[in-house]
Amino acid sequence: MSDLPLIQADRAVPPPATTTSTGGRRRRLRLLSRTDRVVITLMVLVPLLLVTGFVWLPAAATVLLSGTNWDGIGPLNEIEFVGARNYSDVVNIYPPFVPAVQHNLLWLAALFVVATPFGMFLAVLLDKELRGSRFYQTALYLPVVLSLALIGFVWQLLYSRDQGLINAVFGSSIDWYGDSNVNIWAVMVASGWRHVGYIMLLYLAGLKGVDPSLREAAAVDGASESRAFFRVVFPVMRPINIIVLVVTVIESLRAFDLVWVVNKGRNGLELISALVTQNVVGEASRIGFGSALATIMLVVSLVFITIYLATVMRENRE
Amino acid sequence: MSRPQSQAEYLARLVPPSVAGINRRSLLAGAAGTGALLGTGLLAGCGDDSGSGGSSKDVSLGSNQSDPKPKDVLVKVTDGFKTSSGVQVAVNTVDHNTFQENINNYLQGKPDDVFTWFAGYRMRFFAQKGLASDISDVWSKLSGYSDAFKKASTGDDGKQYFVPATYYPWAVFYRKSVWQQHGYQVPTTMDQFTALGAQMKRDGLIPIAFADKDGWPAMGTFDILNLRINGYQFHVDLMAGKEAWTSDKVKKVFDTWAGLLPLHQPDSLGRTWQEAAQSLQQKKSGMYLLGLFVGQQFSNEEQDDLDFFTFPEIDPAIGAKALDAPIDGYMMARKPKNEDNARKLLEYFGGKAAADINLKNDPAVLVANSGADVGGYTALQKKAAELVGSATEIAQFLDRDTRPDFASTVIIPALQQFIKNPKDIGGLTSSIENQKKSIFTD
Asked: Residues 6 or more apart from B290 whose CB is under 8 A from it?
């Protein structure tokens, strides 16, 4: 977001170059008219303020609060600092924490290994202009349009032990949402169902942008369909691939709505985001403790963000 | 307790149906009481033109009664207040869950003069933090409340902060037709209770319907077992963090529960209370420990068939006279804009007139004020009111009797863990105790 004005600044350079040419090495700065400079300043300042105010300050406040035992009541100057006690409590005496970390990792793995490749596969199929591909496209994308809260409700109708469709059709009595060995998989199916549509649409858009002559050339050279895809199309789509990867990681880290709708992230559906919400939002107001959980989540996200940024920057440098 | 003599009639729609568990609290709308002296307020000097004029002529009310029926009843009650006092009530209705979740910010910001809340730990907590006003003077004008209700309205400093309006008891519900068909008798001891459960199993019924997907229904089972085994005072102290969860007393509660679990409906963690109540309604289950709102899952014709008994005695020294009966009512914010009107409104809410309006428009509520004209009560309501009236102590339900953070982030996962694995009681109780020590720091 913050690099937008920089791009704008670069673009702002050429036109004035024709009118005001004072020469010298500092030419680039002087080339900007007053309006340009005002615009640039605004374009840097406004996003900067927004990002600082809505992202960095809250993040810093979260980290600060994680060292307190604030319960959300009373003036800020009465906050008591308790050091790292919240963190040691999270790790040592908070039973849902370890399952939550495991479930987040499981979620990431499932999306990465199953849902994302499947979405890409569907995109490739739809790119073949099959008959009725519009219909398939709409059908597969529909879950993305629905809110996850609604998806949770729809799947509840399928999964309910006593009244659900699945058990009614198969005559089984599996407790899809209640059995803590089963429910995480049940929820991941529902979540994957949505993720597949999302990835499919992203990838389909990318595929449409691939120059058809590349494929024709590959075909002329005798490459098989799959070989052409993996050797030619896939590498060409590198920007889209990175976006898909990032989307997958983000989706798995912020997975929340579905488990919240099912059972508020308890009993086998613990996710860090749900634990944060349980503790901070609502009447519980264990703000210090919840902030410690949120900080842990922030650190985990930072790992992925760092890897992503490092990759992107290395590419830019090349 | 003996078997019920008459046919009970119970009107549905006590609780607005909702997927969200906490919404059971939206249950009772209302207001109750013996009222009286309105209009003779302190602002007698203000003219007689009623309506929306100056600020001395109105008062604001923050309401969590977002479901249609209770909302409608509340409007009628506030209309009654306007008629009798000339003061206009600006009702600010907020979705029930949202209201509850935002209560901290709400009370610290610019709350309405009067707001809906419920008795229990949280009420006393707000009083102690200075987020609610002392309304002892309103209480001095109220009549018709038993000591139990007054006690439930009193803060830690001995002053009153709460006007009770409505309540509902927790008990074991069953269908009379099913019991007649099999010839079951109401159990009064634990042995009879387990024997009855075993008999139901032989008869192909699920003895005890059970659901805990939302986390809170199991609290009712824990509460009643704790009240029967260890008594009311232990319940209060345990909830206040004064007793150890690792004590033998708590372990005995879990042990007893573990013995009863085979009689409970299996796979309860994926089931909502509505589904469990429907298994009772469909005559698949024999009985169900729940609040009075269970009747919501029964059609109007079936209300007659619904009956209940209080959970049987376990320890003769403790008896079976205590129970959970959450009370809903009203409190006053810390700095009300129209304090005089707010006090008048609270007095009206606590009075007979409000209770009668409530009963007339929604005959399915139990009102806290004994002065109200309860002639309109159904047999089941009468029985419920008698049960609570004869109770020696009234508990408010686990999540109202303790810190909300402890109830929601520790107890709910712990009880669900217990239901999953009832064997490891030692590990479970020490985990609860460790977390309790971390939460109850002051």
From this structure: B170, B173, B217, B220, B273, B276, B277
